[in-house]
Protein: PLP-dependent aminotransferase family protein
Amino acid sequence: MIDLTILLNEKSEEPLYTQLYQYIKKEILSGKLTAQTRLPSIRALSSHLHVSRNTVDLAYQQLIAEGYVLSRARSGLYVIDLELETLPSSHSNNMTRLENRVQDQPAIQYDFRYGDVDAEHFPFSTWRKLSNQSLQQNQRMLFSYGDPLGEHGFRSEIAKYVHSSRGVNSSPDQIIIGSGIQYLLGILTGLLGATDNGIAMEEPGYDGVRTIFKHNGFPIHPIPLDEDGLNIHKLYESKSRIVYITPSHQFPYGMVMPLAKRMQLLKWAADQNGIIIEDDYDSEFRYVGKPIPSLQGMDTRQRTVYLGTFSKCLLPSLRTAYMVLPPDLLERYNKQDFRLYDQTVSQIQQKTLELFMSNGHWEAHIRKMRKVYRQKQFTLISTIQKLMGTQATIVGQDAGLHILLRVHNGMDEVELIQTAEEEGVKIYPVSPFWAQRAQAERSMVQIGFGGLSNTDIIEGVQSLYHAWFKKR
Structure:
């Protein structure tokens, strides 16, 4: 329910109820009051506007009579979807069409959204205990904005973790905490300064990052992929001196950049005096082969910015990520007043995460979630292979929390998504990840599995099989 604020003219020759009716009608026609919006009750609106209940009732009756709103028993008045109202009709007909529309749209039962995580295995009791403990340690500390870089103890734990798990070489002073990768990239683009040479990005690549770069004035140079990742020859040809890359799990195709190509990329940075932005967004979840050290850890010339996040292994709602700056950019950060940016992650949350890591809960949680997601991924892939066989090709199954699926039934991306929704399944397009959308694969969709149970994954894939192959 919403509030309606209107200045009624009591001196006007037009009755107050007519003024109110005209105002609400205009709001509906302009789209400011959208379909299914619940109007205030007669008593609430009369009290809010300081008019009689009779005035409001007359205005509402006129709106009902003309088919702009409908009344639901014991619920209230709701704005009608005018796109469905092609012909004048009575109130009862309006209600029938609205109810039929709701019935015709199946509820989404299985949402294969990438970015959803398994909240059932989140250690709530441990987190609650550590959060309470962080509040008890130093209450006065919590009254301030905190260190712009992030709390030193938390950054120290991150430095230890990324060194042991990813080979990242850094001191706590090189680490900046922020509320998400996109926020940190906003800071980084300010440090780099927009250049005519722009930023090179994998094609396809993460559209959320591409948007950040564009909003900060950077031209984008899409670099095609080889089977083992970014085409280094095309990177040289682009003349760009900055490249954003996801080498541990290319987004969205999923390939892992091998050691030889990583060395080629580091040579490019040395040859071009370039900067590599390494986004290690879900490196914890690798299911095949041995882990390869981060580019940052292999970079003896310190030309790499390293990005990591807690969103995939804990919860996206924590909005906590980190960035490791090389010395040159750190010096620029300190000289250019970036320390005037207030810290965006709560001190309480930083302290809780620090305790979570220092007490050993973080690594234990990663080990547990790696098993959980490995099982979910196995369930997804084996069910697809069993039901669809050669009618679908799985792409990017070595790591991460999503796969891509090429479907060989003649449908394009839009048709695949629409027919899936008709069966109550939500899957997602891949075309937005291309800067040049005309080059996107025609019959490919993205399927995330982190937020679904194993049972839901099986039932969801069964519904997809029915939508794409059985109904044709």
Residues 85-92 have pLDDT under 50 and may be disordered. The CA atoms of residues 7 and 324 lie 55 Å apart. The chain has three domains: 16-104, 110-119+364-470, 139-359.
